[in-house]
Amino acid sequence: MRIRTALVASILLAAALVAGSAAESRVCLAGDSPESCVPDPREAAAKLEEEINGLFAEKKYAEAAEKCRAEIALVPTAASAHYNLACALARLGKTDDALAALKKSAELGFDDAAHAKEDADLASIRDAKGFAAILEICTANEAKAAVGTYDPGFDMPGLKSVEGTPEGGLRWRMYLSKTADAEHPQRLIVWLHPSGGSMNGTVAQLAAKWSEDGFAVLLPTQKRWSGWSEGDVRKLLETTIPDAAKTPGVDAKRPVLAGFSAGGQVALSLWREDASRFGGLLVDAAYPIDMEKYAQGTSTAFALPKGEAVKSVPIYVLVGDKDGGTRLWTQVEADWIAAGVPLHVRTIADGRHEWLLRADEEPAVRAWLRDVAAGKTPGAATSPTAPAAPSPAAPTAPTAPSAPPK
Predict the structure, then answer these.
(1) DSSP letter (8 states) at residue 220
(2) Helix (H) / strand (E) containing 299
(3) What residue ranges do the domains of the chain occupy?
(4) pLDDT tens, 338-377?
(5) What is the C-alpha separation between 354 and 358, in angstroms, rounded?
(6) Cα–Cα distance for residue pair 95/86, rounded to 1 Å
(7) Which CATH number fits domain 159-373: 3.40.50.450, 3.40.1190.20, 3.40.250.10, 3.40.50.1820?
(8) What string of DSSP letters covers 190-237?
(9) Residue 123 has what DSSP assignment?
(10) Per-position b or e across 106-128, b if 16+ CB within 10 A of its CB
(11) Are 323 and 302 in contact (CB under 8 A)?
(12) Is the Cα torsion angle 370, 374, 379, 383 positive or negative in sign?
């Protein structure tokens, strides 16, 4: 089956955690009144997928099939729901029905032919007439999805620009100082884009400044910008970053993750899974939401991960005071700081779910980055928060439905 884990589910919810957005498109958080919040059908679908995951784990395939049908009723165009239905039906020995569900999934855009070829849940129908033809549709979908996804970026004056196309990884571009070498390497910042666009042009402009602060900046240049799948994250961590790390003058041992909206959710989820892999987080309009509890109907922040590693990873958060997700940072900020997490939450006055790293915020962010580059662990204890002056309006980054979860 196609599994939606807490990582992917939290990514998909990031853009919906917006105070002041249209009621039919927002996530209902604890404390919201029924009058002010009408649940998005995708919320219920996300909860159903969590239940479906559990039923597959328990091998309760008949119940899983019913949950899949319920999800399809909520979101008829969800290719992953039809795919999971096919898996449940195949496990139940209903070959014709399973093939029909799988074909519908392909017709709706399912494009991971490689996964379908290896998925144990589909083993009983893999030799059935029509299966190969469905895989051909999935392969064609993948080719179509790749069209127009290349955002090459551009050279920046005064910086060295390096590109890579690793097999099995994400195509990438990296900016670093022309003076960086093996004896004078720069730390690595990895850019994690929001749903709906790469923002590579914005990041290229930041790279020119961050290079002065001791960092090389890596950004993906070819992928589906509608969101982050687990496959995307795996390719980035296992192939793209190691490939870029071969560049002389780059120190990629513990990269800093910088992400906006869905990209920020990726950063927080990866830190939660294994903080020791990273040297810092810079997140804009992203939140520490506990997706396991959300699947059970409770909207709250996730618990602080156990272990000493969280104390050595500085986190800089930009969040708007009119953004619904801000309340999750309010829940954890004091406790995390007391526990030794080097956390700095910068609350922007009149800010919503939008790009907040504007010109007036750059000096503080750059000072934080210089400390990180120097091996320090700047945090709230040394960088007290204060309300920001109202920032000029800026356009919210484009959003679009995320790619089917892996």
Answers:
(1) E
(2) none
(3) 40-146, 159-373
(4) 999 999 999 999 999 999 999 999 999 999 999 999 999 9
(5) 11
(6) 9
(7) 3.40.50.1820
(8) EEEPPTT---HHHHHHHHHHHHHTTEEEEEEEES-TT---HHHHHHII
(9) G
(10) bebbbbbbebbeebebbebbeeb
(11) no
(12) negative
Pairing of strands 171-177, 215-222: antiparallel
How many residues are present in the chain? 406
Cα separation, 353 vs 249, in Å, equals: 36
What average pLDDT does the segment 323-345 reach?
A: 95
Residue 245 identity (one-letter amino acid)? A
User: What gap in Å lies between CA 151 and CA 118, rounded to an integer?
Assistant: 31
* Coil, helix or strand at residue 317: strand
Answer for the pair 372, 343: CB distance below 8 angstroms, yes or no.
no
Element (H, E) at 187: strand 186-192
133 phi and psi angles, rounded to 5 deg: -65, -35
| Residues whose CB is less than 8 angstroms from the CB of residue 87 and which lie 6 or more positions away in sequence, other chains included | 1, 56, 98, 119, 121, 122
Residues sharing a CB contact under 8 Å with residue 132, sequence separation 6 or more, in sequence order: none
Whether the CB-CB separation of 67 and 52 falls below 8 Å is answered with: yes
Dump pLDDT digits (tens) for 250-296.
Answer: 999 999 999 999 999 999 999 999 999 999 999 999 999 887 676 56
The continuous run of DSSP H or E covering 303 comes out as none
Angle at Cα 279 formed by Cα 275 and Cα 284, nearest 5°? 85
Higher pLDDT among residues 17 and 127, named by residue? 127
Give the whole-angstrom CA distance, residue 12 versus residue 42: 9
Which tokens in the block code for residue 271? 């830190």
What kind of fold does domain 40-146 have according to CATH?
1.25.40
